[in-house]
Design brief:
Elements (H helix, E strand, L loop, with lengths): L4 E7 L9 E7 L3 H4 L4 E8 L10 E4 L11 E4 L4 E4 L3 E7 L2 H15 L3
Antiparallel strand pairs: 1-2, 1-7, 2-3, 3-5, 3-6, 4-5
């Protein structure tokens, strides 16, 4: 798994507004770290475009590289470390411009310049 890969992920049941269930997510960890760690940070995707009203979100349009069928919103503010066993098949990979927007959103959320 590489940064920017889109995989099917089984998000465990959680309370509140956190995403749960099977959905695509963007991997936010380098393959070299994945080989040494039991968890993987992932960013859930939703097709609920109204989610763009929240800070820490990025629009991801479907294309032949990312494997998405619908426009989706990367919920960067819901970045979560999940057990590797919850990560399913690879769908594709988002573009570098999407990953740049994801990193910018994460910087804004954390106050990092």
């Amino acid at each position: 798994m590489n940064v920017g890969d889109v995989h099917w992920v089984d998000f465990p049941p959680r309370n509140g507004h956190a995403q749960r269930g099977r959905r695509p997510a963007i991997v936010a960890q380098d393959a070299s770290a994945t080989a040494r760690l039991p968890t993987i940070p992932v960013i859930p995707l939703t097709t609920q475009l109204a989610s763009l009203r929240f800070p820490g979100t990025v629009l991801v349009d479907p294309d032949q590289n990312n494997g998405l069928r619908h426009a989706s919103v990367a919920l960067v503010f819901q970045l979560a470390a999940l057990d590797q066993r919850l990560i399913g098949i690879r769908m594709g990979q988002v573009s570098q411009s999407v990953m740049d927007a994801v990193w910018d959103a994460l910087d804004q959320l954390t106050g990092r310049p």
